[in-house]
Amino acid sequence: MSQILDHNDDNIQIAANDLLAGKLVGMPTETVYGLAGDATNENAIALIYRTKGRPQFNPLIVHVLDQDMAQNYVTMNDHAKNLASAFWPGPLTMVLGRKDNSGLSHLVSAGLDTLAVRCPAHPVARHLLNATNKPLAAPSANPSGSISPTTSQHVEQGLGQKIDHILEGGACDKGIESTIVLVTNDKLVLLRPGSISAEQLASATGLPVQTKDDDSINAPGQLSSHYAPHAAVRLNAFHKMKDEVFIGFGALDGDFNLSETGDLEEAAANLFKTLHMADATGVPSIAIAPIPWTGLGIAINDRLERAAAPREN
What we know:
Elements: E1 3-5, H1 9-20, E2 25-27, E3 34-38, H2 42-52, E4 61-63, H3 67-70, E5 74-75, H4 78-87, E6 92-98, E7 114-118, H5 123-132, E8 136-137, H6 152-159, E9 165-167, E10 179-183, E11 188-192, H7 198-205, E12 209-211, E13 232-234, E14 244-248, E15 256-257, H8 264-280, E16 285-288, H9 297-308
Helix pairs in contact: 1-5
């Protein structure tokens, strides 16, 4: 099993040494825990795909320490720089043109000429980026398609037999993955909703924000079946049926409740943790109360719809 390491200088160096040797490390971020590997090491990136069982047409997010580091790998126009100034470090991933001869593994982009890049806010992730001085590819630290991990224990349960070390960073503050936006000179395309809204993106840039209108995979988190528990998922439920666990929201209570007060930020932070707990009961089906399609509810419903979708082969 993996060893969970407390956050201190010595343990950060152990994890950094792993990464520099081409190994993988469980790394906390403010969104979910990531399976980190050196983005400049082709073998390490191939190992991420093998360890997760992730299809290689599904690109990875590369984590950087700051905007200066990002500009070694991507071309940032003024709109991208404005977004970075407004939301980095934080839960925003930008898809930008990848620079030639960047030194990154070609696998991180899954053959595309773009790169998904993010600057995390979590102090442990930032400490590790500083210690390695490397860009770190870090998809969610779980078997591909399953519930995302928001604690070190979730990582250990899913990948504990496959990696040596997991850095402890506590429960993730945001609890859902980053907002992903494609940045061009004249528009933004929202590829995955998250805790940073389309309205916030538009306000920071003055650009219109469009939604993706085709089925192409040009960023992580776009597979129709994703974030899925072992149990079937029934959405917009108002009561529990036989052989179900019921996850409530607000006044509609159940075996678990994402937020008894109907707070969407609390619901997002609790989402994957609650799915893990419900799935651990061993029931064949999980029923989930309706979540409003407003604000952060848009991102929560995106994750729930993918969790409920039929598994892809």
